[in-house]
Structures are given as C-alpha cells and as structure tokens.
Specification:
transcription cis-regulatory region binding, Tetracycline Repressor, domain 2, 2 domains, mainly alpha, Arc Repressor Mutant, subunit A, about 200 residues
Length: about 200
C-alpha cells in the first residue's frame, strides 16, 4: 500500500467543497475588486487550489459568475421575504420593494452582476429557476395588493422598473439613499393604489 498522500487541495476540498471554496473566493473578489477582478486564476489563488481546478468544476469564468448570480437571486428572495414578514398586510408589497432595495444597496457589485447577462449563462436552468422565483414573488405580491385591475401587468412592470431603477441610481450615486427604505418604497408603491400608469403612447411613440 502506497504511503503517498493526495495533494493538499484534494484532501481539503473532498466531497464538493472545492465548488464552495471557489464560489467563496469569487464572491470575495467581486466585493473587493468588482466583476473585472474576478478571474479563474484569482479564484484559484484565493481558494488555495491549482489554476485549473475552477475550470474543472465550472467550465469557464462564465460558469463561476453564473453560480454567483444564482446565489444573488436566492439571497434577494430572502431579503424580500424577511422585509415582508415585518410589515403589516397592507404594506407587504412596499416592504418587498424595500427588501429589494436593501439587498441591492448592501451587495452592490453582486447585485450588478446578476443583471449582466453578457457575463453569465442566462439560459442556465438553475439561474432561470432562481431569477424566476424572485420575479414570481414580486409579481404575486403586486397582484395581491393592486389587482384585480385591467392594467395589472403594466403596474407590475412599472413597479419593478421603478424599484430596480431607483436602486441602480442609488448605487451609482445619482440618487441619495433615503433614510428609511420602507417609507420610500411605500410612497412609490402606494402611488399606484389610485393612480393608473400612463397609457400606451401617452409620452409619444
């Protein structure tokens, strides 16, 4: 029987731990350096594995970034759900918006990556499932709060665009972060209780 031990990497990352180690490394790099700072070589170095190890698990950098985006959408759903749990029934949908904004502002690089479809695999089944759950949660609560009304799908789309757009503007520094995210989201969402969105073509073609 050979006394030769497997390489340290193989001992440390047995049973799938390599995947998690690479993801943790990539998340840390994303937070520190932005998406441009996340490379397979840097992920391997940060995780303490061979240069080729991340590629064996994820195929390429897009695979790593897709895994990160999936985690982002899962955490976004948790943030929205936790925010809603603390709200009164009539404020659930605006609390959801506050949870959306809070996740975005507290995880700016991660949030940005989640919507950079040119850097990930947007047709990945796990990505579609994770992003779909976030969208379905948003849609369900908007319909619960504002439906039935004939323009509910337009209300849904405009509220998502406003929620996402405000978060993006705050991240870029073009809009100041409000002192109270819940109150800010409530002001935005409650506008649609009595005010319909603009009709098709109202602002020109």
């Amino acid at each position: 029987m050979s006394d030769t031990l497997p390489p340290p990497d193989a001992r440390r990352y047995h049973h799938g731990d390599l995947r998690n180690a690479v993801i943790d490394a990539a998340l840390a790099l994303l937070e520190e350096k932005g998406v441009e700072g996340v490379t397979l070589r840097q992920c391997a170095a940060r995780a303490g594995v061979s240069h080729g190890a991340p590629g064996h698990h994820f195929g390429d950098l897009r695979g790593v970034l897709t895994a990160i985006a999936i985690i982002g959408f899962e955490r976004l759903v948790v943030s929205m759900e936790q925010s809603m749990m603390r709200a009164a029934v009539e404020d659930r949908v605006s609390a959801l918006g506050a949870g959306y904004a809070r996740f975005a502002l507290n995880n700016q690089a991660h949030f940005s990556l989640m919507f950079q479809l040119d850097r990930i695999r947007p047709d990945d089944p796990e990505f579609l499932e994770a992003s779909g759950k976030a969208w379905q949660l948003f849609e369900r609560e908007v319909i619960r709060r504002f439906g039935p009304r004939s323009d509910i799908k337009r209300v849904r789309d405009i509220l998502w665009a406003a929620t996402h757009g405000r978060a993006s503007l705050m991240i870029s520094g073009q809009m100041k972060r409000p002192e109270n995210l819940e109150a800010d989201a409530k002001l935005l969402f409650d506008t649609f209780v009595t005010t319909p969105p603009p009709s098709e073509g109202e602002f020109g073609a």
